[in-house]
Amino acid sequence: xxxxxxxxxxxxxxxxxxxxxxxxxxxxxxxxxxxxxxxxxxxxxxxxxxxxxxxxxxxxxxxxxxxxxxxxxxxxxxxxxxxxxxxxxxxxxxxxxxxxxxxxxxxxxxxxxxxxxxxxxxxxxxxxxxxxxxxxxxxxxxxxxxxxxxxxxxxxxxxxxxxxxxxxxxxxxxxxxxxxxxxxxxxxxxxxxxxxxxxxxxxxxxxxxxxxxxxxxxxxxxxxxxxxxxxxxxxxxxxxxxxxxxxxxxxxxxxxxxxxxxxxxxxxxxxxxxxxxxxxxxxxxxxxxxxxxxxxxxxxxxxxxxxxxxxxxxxxxxxxxxxxxxxxxxxxxxxxxxxxxxxxxxxxxxxxxxxxxxxxxxxxxxxxxxxxxxxxxxxxxxxxxxxxxxxxxxxxxxxxxxxxxxxxxxxxxxxxxxxxxxxxxxxxxxxxxxxxxxxxxxxxxxxxxxxxxx
Length: 454
Prior knowledge:
The chain is of the alpha/beta class. It has helices spanning about 10-25, 60-65, 70-85, 95-105, 120-135, 155-160, 190-210, 235-245, 300-305, 320-335, 340-360, 400-410, 430-450, and strands spanning about 40-45, 45-50, 55, 115-120, 140-145, 175, 215-220, 250-255, 280, 295, 365-370, 375-380, 385, 415, 415-420, 420-425. Helix 11 runs parallel beside helix 13 (about 430-450). The longest helix has 23 residues, at about 340-360. The model has no long low-confidence stretch (mean pLDDT about 95).
């Protein structure tokens, strides 16, 4: 793809910014304290502003532009579908909707062969939990701390980070537990084997005290995303699968962020040889070009609704434009070996490069990840593992991370920053040269973080 020629137009940028500040209400923000960048365009792994500044996007939007911005094949597919059938109600069989479902079902593990389409990941989680509750006749759902499952009513209560707190009613039937995270082990483990075994025992103890017959589902991000990209230790997910089977609990894997090539496999579950009963997806299914998400459903749960109506639906479920984007995206990923590229970049460029940065920068406490799904845990002290900023820091307390982010942007890198971490999550089709460019920018920005180490 030929790099786009950027022609600065500050006056247009100022007009865009003014209209935004006058009328757009932004998510997760104190409206009077934000200063959103006015974006003039994007292409591939880059975007640019109206002042002519170009940024390598190491966030993939919100970890969803898995094939980058403005892929011409997907753009053309959306345009063609708009000319053929721009929209149609979900109760009908529509060719592109059926084809998207078929292509997704071909790639999901096991017998997750029925697809319920939603507009995004949070709605997928809402419906997966509803299905589990109706299938089992039970109410409670267990989810992990250090997790994010969406911002709708049930999804936000399932979430295990501070974004839940303002909306937590304590009456949503949700029970949280500790999932494994060896670097900050809540189980005083010293090895992955200990962490896995103790986390599984903790989960089973929680189930015992909550009452197994009251629990409809356990939901986990296969590899937690925003919470820190903590790849589960060997045996953990298989152990959760066994616990669910033992107590008749539905096992839900949330692959909204980890799915569709992000970890170097079509779905992260493939790394662990585990098959859930329900799997949620969104984001990378069509690189976010048109909103789309869904639930992949196994045969047993699907059969629950053979004669019994499923009490849920959305006006835009399986929207033709979104499904056309999904069909084209999946085809692009096959033709251009995007999943294989994600695995290759992780193994040969990002993984080794990030570990090399950790050797030279005292602010890096741990590097973890796979594919194009990596996190750097930034710390004040490697020995004590004190985070570079406190948990859920804001304002002056968050100054070290804010300074790091500003330094990255100054060097042409748009970073993913959350609490005391930065994540390296470029597009799955990022090139070696682009990945190395990102590493160089991170190298420079980490010198700023180093200034805050003890």
